[in-house]
Amino acid sequence: MKRFSAVAAALLLAVSASFASWDYFPPNDAKEGEAKVGFGMYMPNSDFTATALTIGARYSIISGLEASVILPLPTSMTDADFGDVFGLSCPIVGIRYWVPLVGIGFMGDFVLPVDTREGIEPDFDMTIGLQYLRRFTPLLQIGSEIRLENLVTDGADIDMGLGSEMNLNLGIINPFFGIEWNNLFANNYNTTFDLIMGVAVPIGDKISIDASLQLGIAGYKVLVPDMTTLTIKEENETPMIISAHISYSF
User: Fold this and answer.
1) Per-residue pLDDT tens for 53-62?
2) Max alpha carbon distance in the chain (Å)?
3) Where are the domains of the chain?
4) Which class is 6-249 in CATH?
């Protein structure tokens, strides 16, 4: 992995990070939890593809208070050997608290500086944010989040993000749609905008599977440690993330 550029490492991290911030909706009831395994494929342009497995679990300690852990496992990257890519990369420990009866929650994600691959030395990082729920009907709800990222990473600019997801709880099949907006507070104030669409299918009371497609509509530049940027959205190309998960509630 020593021979990989900082840009390539950043792109791999994007696959792992697609599993972060568990969701934009309130935690489960007290003493209830969820385990999830996922797979993501990140394709910023036709010349590059990266994939990663993700394993995560969350648990509601008391009503409204949730702790979570996510373990990203990069598995492949264009022009790279499996032995150089695969490994545990930047585990994420999360905490969320939703104020009872208000529909507002606070979140924090903490990226640990752990990487089992040779030559990779990640930094500790932190994201904090505010979440909000709006229920229109028992079948339709929208969860939203505003957040600040890269709060402690050395040499990186703070990133402000907005996200919103609409869930349609139809029972047999539950479609969802979302948007993601990020603004990198670098010299050029680069902005990215994504559209997300997917579907979740419950299997009994405990198991659920979901799949989604995330499309990069605008922006897409990657900040590298020397404070330069590399444009990865080519003309007439749309960056995308394809992901799927299976979850078990306990």
Assistant:
1) 889 999 999 9
2) 53
3) 6-249
4) mainly beta
Q: What is the DSSP string of 77-134?
A: ETT--HHHH-S-B--EEEEEEEETTTTEEEEEEEE---B-STT--PPPEEEEEEEEEE
Count of CB atoms within 10 A of residue 116's CB?
Answer: 10
Is 124:111 a contact under the CB 8 Å cutoff?
yes
Task: For the full predicted model, state whether its pTM sits above 0.85.
Answer: no
Q: Which residue has the tokens 């995308």?
A: 240
| Contact (Cβ atoms closer than 8 angstroms) between residue 233 and residue 17 | no
